[in-house]
Structures are given as structure tokens and as C-alpha cells.
Amino acid sequence: MAASTPIRELRRKAADLIITRIKTPPKPLKPISVAQAADDLKVTRQAVYDIMNRKYCPSLSMVHAACEAWGLTFDFRGILIEKAIFSPRKKETSPALSPQLSLNLVEAIQQIDYRSFEVIKAKPMGRVLEVTIRLTIPA
What is the CATH number of domain 7-82? Predict the structure, then answer.
């Protein structure tokens, strides 16, 4: 089996989930319009038409949005996506830095010069640049 076969199967199944909901949903659901599907998925109508014409493959985040909006379940080789699987992340509150820790951090940053750090990796991530550095702080 070619390595790309599972990917093709996943893409086809993801598109089928959306196409089926629009054209021939299971009973008791009624078909919905392309405009309604686009609104539910927060994409353009053209994107929905492209999915229906197999010109565009929906992402897993779009599949999740479809499951959330329409109460559907998506199962691919044991990977299950449904409304209750993903819940919104709770905002993590970071503990306030103590004044002593803040001062030590500021002092350490002030001691950094060009010999104290090394860029390990720099990688573009969309509109953001991810940089991994090694920082050596003198004791």
C-alpha cells in the first residue's frame, strides 16, 4: 500500500462528510444549502463548491467545525472526531512573578551579549518566525 493512500482516503472521507450533509443527509436531517454550509463552516461558498467538486480537501479543523455545527461524527481508522471530543481551551493563568524572580531575570538579560547565545534553528511558520536559541547565562 502506497504511503499516500491513507491520506487520499482521509481526504475523500472528509469531503464526503460535508457533501453528504449538504446533498443527502441521514434521516431525520434535511439537506442544507451551500450558503448555510459555508456559514456553518465559516468558509466561502466557493470553498464549499470546490469541496463538492473534489477540487479542495477540507482540513481536519474544518471537519471538526462540521461535526460541531451539525452534530456529526467523523471516524477514520479509529480516529474519532465529534462534537464532544474537542473542548475550548481554558485560559491558563500564569502565576505572577515574584519581585525577586523578576529582578534576577532582568539582571540576567542585561548580562547577555552576543557571545552568550547561539541560534540553533530558525524556521518560518506562516506569518511568524520560530527561533530556537541556546542561551548561556553566567553564574
Answer: 1.10.260.40
CA dihedral 56, 124, 60, 47 (to 10 degrees): -30
Q: Are 115 and 49 in contact (CB under 8 A)?
A: no
Q: Cell numbers of 38, please?
A: 459555508
Which residues lie below 8 Å from residue 1, measured CB to CB, with a gap of 6+? none
Contacts for 69 with CB less than 8 Å, ≥ 6 apart: 40, 41
pLDDT tens readout for residues 114-138 = 566 777 887 877 777 777 877 776 6
Which pTM does this prediction carry? Answer: 0.55
For residues 112 and 114, give the distance between their C-alpha atoms in angstroms, rounded to a whole number: 7
* Burial (CB count within 10 angstroms: exposed 0-12, middle 13-18, buried 19+), residue 33: exposed
The ranges assigned to domains in the chain are 7-82
- What is the spatial distance between Cα 121 and Cα 46, in angstroms, rounded to a whole number? 38
